[in-house]
Amino acid sequence: MASAFSSSNNLIHTKRALLIGNNKYKKNSQLKYCTNDAEDLANKLHKIDFEITVGTNLTYEQMDRMIKTFTYKINPDDLILFFFAGHGCQWNHLNFLIPIDDDRIKINTDLECRAINAHATLEKIMSCRPSAAIFLLDCCRNTFVCKPSNSNGLTIMGAVAGSFIGFACDANTVAVDKSTNGRNSLFTSHLLQHIDQLNLTIDEIMYDVCDGVRKATDDDQCPFRISSLIRKVYLNQQFTIQQSNDTVCAPLNCIDAVCSRLDRIDAKADLILANTQTIINQI
To answer: What region holds the Caspase family p20 domain (predicted)?
Structure first.
């Protein structure tokens, strides 16, 4: 059965998530927690009825193919979440997500054909007309060895209407590859604490994540977000059914079953009405 989500107007559509985590870099420093980050977040999202696509330690061709395949599956008005953990860098005012075969990146222009353009990826997703797209980048880890820019970390991205972008740290800064739980990055560990909370919008979730990371680092690492959402977006919402004098709360993905039952009730009522009319006509 397809999963469902609700925006503020209670439309029901599929929730889809693509998560990529890269640890085993050939050229730059290997990372410790990125694959765990992607897999653990995938498990959390699966429990709140996201359809999951997850990849770890991917080459450029594998990342490119996975993103294209995922994008192809998007239907209009789906809710999309994209997550990347690994090395990232900026060049020519663009952000690039680095695959594990980073030894093929020799000069700046190699990024255009040997790394994933984050801006272009967001644009591809938005061209599929999702109801909303959430873009989470935990890739400001360490300075990229082949520094294509005088600035560290990632640059600010413009959020297309209907999109939300969350960064692990401020623009032009890096977050060290450390953990407080021995398994996940600091940013993702806080994300895991809040991502499945009931009836919170993504804005509220990210506020709690950012606040937690800042407090844990004494403001040394300050995640930030850019929102161009046109409505409130909930990742894990319950809806209320009024049943006689009782109020029943149910997960939103139960609504298909509820609607199906109501359809059967309506059909039965129509049949009774038709039979009654037949009897009246006979009389």
So the answer is: 13-144
Count of the separate structural domains present in the chain: 2
| Residue 1 domain flag | no
Structural domain boundaries enclosing 251: 241-282
Element (H, E) at 257: helix 255-282
Phi-psi map region of 213: left, alpha, beta (phi>0 left; psi -120 to 50 alpha): alpha
Query: Could you tell me if 215 and 223 are in contact, meaning their C-beta atoms sit under 8 angstroms apart?
Result: no
Q: Which of 25-29, 31-35, 244-248 has the lowest mean pLDDT?
A: 244-248
pLDDT 10s digits, 127-158: 999 999 999 999 865 555 555 554 566 877 77
79 plus 139 within the same structural domain: yes
Residues 276, 160, single domain; the answer is no
Q: Which helix (H) or strand (E) holds 247?
A: strand 246-251
What percent of the chain clears pLDDT 70, i.e. is strictly above it? 72
Mapping DSSP to helix (H, G, I), strand (E, B) and coil, where does residue 49 land? coil
